[in-house]
Automatic annotation (TrEMBL):
Region Disordered, annotated ranges: 361-381
Biased composition (Polar residues): 366-376
Enzyme class label: transferase
GO biological process: N-acetylglucosamine transport; phosphoenolpyruvate-dependent sugar phosphotransferase system
UniProt organism field: Caldalkalibacillus thermarum (strain TA2.A1)
Main location: membrane
EC number(s) reported in the record: 2.7.1.193
Active-site residues, Swiss-Prot/TrEMBL: 406
Protein name (record): N-acetylglucosamine-specific PTS transporter subunit IIBC
Gene3D superfamilies according to UniProt: Glucose permease domain IIB
UniProt cross-references to PROSITE patterns, sorted A to Z: PTS_EIIB_TYPE_1 (PS51098), PTS_EIIB_TYPE_1_CYS (PS01035), PTS_EIIC_TYPE_1 (PS51103)
Membrane-spanning segments: 45-63, 70-88, 94-110, 130-153, 159-176, 181-199, 219-245, 252-269, 275-300, 307-324, 330-349
Keyword Iron: no
Amino acid sequence: MLAFLQRIGRALMLPVAVLPAAALLLRLGQEDLLNIPFMAAAGDAIFANLALIFAIGVAIGLAKDGHGSAALAGAVGYFVLTYGMAAINDELNMSVLGGILSGVVAGLLYNRYHNIKLPEWLGFFGGRRFVPIVTAGTMVVLAGIFGFVWVYAQNVIDAIGQWIIGAGALGVGVYGFLNRLLIPIGLHHVINSLIWFVFGEYNGATGDLHRFFAGDPDAGIFMAGFFPIMMFGLPAACLAMYFAAKREKRKAIAGMLFGIGFTSFLTGITEPVEFTFMFLSPLLYVVHALLTGTALVVAFMLDVRHGFGFSAGAIDYLLNFGIATNPGRLIVIGLVYAAIYFVLFYTLITKLDLKTPGREDDDTLANANPEQPQDEANQRGRFEDLAQKYTQALGGKDNLETIDNCITRLRLKVKDMSKVDEAVLKRLGAKGVIKPGGNSLQVIIGTDVEFIADAMRKQQ
């Protein structure tokens, strides 16, 4: 079940990836910026059809080869489900959950039936053409079921959503804590999808993120508190790790720490920072999760409402500054949290003698500051070379059943876990290795992971 939920979490990242473009178009087209109505309408069109986009994106993400017929099946399934349910009860609204369900069903059916052989007289409908057909049939049955039972589930979801939103400081604090705590097993995307796209409603828009861009003055409470952490707290943690490193090793790890710290500040991508200490000290990571929860509470209590299309980095902070409530207060909060992070991290690292970058007992650094070739051909060759080395460290081609990736990590299924050489993986630059259970394996690489994963798939 854990592995299955992780697959769904990974699949959710594809449709989520379109949100920055939608938010950019919607925001830049507003009257207080470029005042281009058709640009704003183009961005709003994506938000208005999020459920359909999730159906298509999740289906592709779950399909073993990402084929377009899975996407078609996801769209077909979504239309059959929503129109079928509406014929039974037009007050039902599964919103993004309907899209996710349709995408999951389509993706799983694609993996099962994409190479099915039919009798010769039905041969035209065999193979991948069969997938949208069987998906439509399955969703007809589900539409009939959900048309009668979803009203009860909808009431429960509404009640949970209203409780979390109505819980105020407690609700945002618990969410912030769980958001960080679930990152190691990759399930934070699942809870994010509920908070950002499902809970709450404003003029037809559901979820904190969607409602924020729709102009809901009460939206943004589940996003604002992340800005102080991602723009200030985690970069300060990188600074603390730098000063906690052995003097003779600071130069070697400076490029890596300052690079991932700046990435967190600018874009809000935090996993490269978090995986530098996550496995070294669970205590340190729990402290980070608790601080994230408190940051959301502080932002809520200071009446700050802010949101993002991608993540809580400087780009989204500045882009959406004009539609936020009291966004300037986040800078003050961020500076306070930067001081807290620096003091706590430096103290815990030095007192507990944690082996963060630059504090290793040996003289070997795990590819802390590799030289990056700028030529495109060299870059491609570098990724191909890394892919080959990662494959060898993972036990070879024959040991890899599936190769997937999200923003920063390889998500693999291996045949024999004992053949995986974690020491070599870390020497190649991996920031961490996670074994969720069974034959599932995750290798945290960073934002270059997509290029390495593509090269690994080509070499299979």
